[in-house]
């Protein structure tokens, strides 16, 4: 706390001694920030719905994460279009009949940012094209570089346009370009806290985009900035490209997480619903896995008519497939679940031929 705070506190404490009726500075602050048990606080106001579950709550930060070139910006386009009334995506709809979106692209040049606008226009009802703005912030600096009163930083531009336009949904693609070092603890904490306060002050949902770590199986967001986002965001979404399908998952939620949804790209590079293609993709994967499972079982069951005890089957799996006990049990349980192994007494199992 600074000296001004303590000076004000001492001054008002002295005033209270001479005038006990007057409310002090700290009493006003306590009343301002204390949760009142007699107040029925409303639920968060959500801006869209996915799979029947409301999501993207106003007054909160939300993070989108993915590997490099795995569809983060396309997902931002999709969320914007859904908010503006697009019906291209199964189970996704807006919860705000008339609202605004502010989309800030911090990474790309103007030519590339202009494509964002074209893609969103292609998905959005024509009557809503005036309800959102897309900004290219690449020309702006992170901090002021001169005393020029006309200079404005990236964060200042975002905060001031939010205050002016009062959007319901804000998208910042990507947040790392608002600071110098996403591994700096102080810098990361300051930025995330400022954005969270901004969302709360203007009652808007602020969606920020952050890269995941480079490791193939490491889905965590990069650096201390990613750690802070995990702690402060109400929701974290991930998007992963599986073949030609983009799979979106709500991996973290303080409220009720929404289900997965999928999209694909048209020949023109415009997102559209990919549910049917994803189901086909998963069925092919299931059939491939079952064929591999049947092959593994066949190696152990030389005579399909002979029933074996589970312990003997596990031993055969380990010996003939060269695997450990845990993996052998995984194969056994998967085979039973898939109906490839049958039993009449829950003790002896035989291979089902068809």
Mean of residue pLDDT values: 91
Tally of separate helices: 10
Are there runs of 5+ residues with pLDDT below 50, and where?
Answer: none
Widest β-sheet, arrangement of strands: 6-5-7-8-3-9-10-11-12
Main sheet attributes: strand count, strand direction, barrel closure: 9 strands, mixed
SSE run? HHEEEHEEHEHEHEHEEEEHEHHEE
Q: Write down the overall geometry.
A: elongated
Q: What percent strand?
A: 15-25%
Give the total of beta strands: 15
Distance between the termini: 75 Å
- Helix and strand content put the structural class at alpha/beta
Describe this entry's structure for a reader.
Strands 6-5-7-8-3-9-10-11-12 form a nine-stranded mixed beta sheet, sandwiched between helices. Strands 2-1-4 form a three-stranded antiparallel beta sheet, with helices on one face. A three-stranded antiparallel beta sheet has the order 13-15-14. Helix 8 packs across helix 9. It has about 350 residues and is α/β, with parallel strands linked by helices. The model has no long low-confidence stretch (mean pLDDT about 90). The chain contains ten helices and 15 strands.
In short:
By secondary structure, this protein is α/β, with parallel strands linked by helices. Helix content is about 40%, strand content about 20%.
List the helices and strands and how they pair.
Blueprint: H1 3-18, H2 25-33, E1 46-50, E2 53-57, E3 61-66, H3 72-83, E4 92-94, E5 101-105, H4 110-123, E6 132-136, H5 154-165, E7 169-173, H6 185-202, E8 205-211, H7 223-232, E9 235-242, E10 245-253, E11 261-265, E12 271-273, H8 275-300, E13 308-309, H9 310-321, H10 325-337, E14 341-343, E15 348-351
Parallel strand pairs: 3-8, 3-9, 5-6, 5-7, 7-8
Antiparallel strand pairs: 1-2, 1-4, 9-10, 10-11, 11-12, 13-15, 14-15
Helix pairs in contact: 3-4, 6-7, 8-9, 9-10
